Structure formats: structure tokens, C-alpha cells
Amino acid sequence: xxxxxxxxxxxxxxxxxxxxxxxxxxxxxxxxxxxxxxxxxxxxxxxxxxxxxxxxxxxxxxxxxxxxxxxxxxxxxxxxxxxxxxxxxxxxxxxxxxxxxxxxxxxxxxxxxxxxxxxxxx
Length: 122
Hints:
By secondary structure, the protein is of the alpha/beta class. The chain contains two helices and six strands; from the N terminus they run βαββαβββ.
């Protein structure tokens, strides 16, 4: 069930590989231990002109990757390891430093997310 929304701030002249979403989905599925076709990725590119940090941060040398993760259940005892593995994997695949990959866990999906009208049971 994991759904990842991944937004990549593009470097000047960068074009995302056509198989990037599939590569990210496969890597995430391995880390999240999901069934085949069980991890979904929505990938978006963000022009660097649309990204900024306060106090003049950011600029031409920072091109982060933002990863939002929605899972049915959050297992607190594995989140730190999982986030580290996701950051390493996403960084490698997206050709970014690990410190520029930011993972955001959404609240648990069970009881509030429905697929085809069927609510995930708590």
C-alpha cells in the first residue's frame, strides 16, 4: 500500500530519465517490503526557479528531493532505519547527496484512505 509522492528540484538542463518513477518504485518496494504492484510512486519535477530557502539559502547549488510516504501502518521501531534506507536509495537513483533527500511520513492510512471506495481497516 505504500504511496510515495516524490518531487525533485531540477538542476539546470536536467531531464528526468523516462524510467525514473519505476526505478524509485522498485527500490522503495524492496525497502518497504511490499508485494508486487503494492508500492506506488507519483513523480514530479520542480524547476529550480520554483524552489527557495529563507535567508538566501538554496540557490544554484542545492537541488533537493522531497519524498512523502503514506503507509497503512507506521511502525515506530523501524522508521529511523527505513527513512535512512529510503534517503540513501532515492539519493543514489536521483543522483543527489543523501543530505538533500527529505522524507516526510504522512499519518497512517488505515481508517482514512480508501482504494476503489474500500476503506483501509484500522
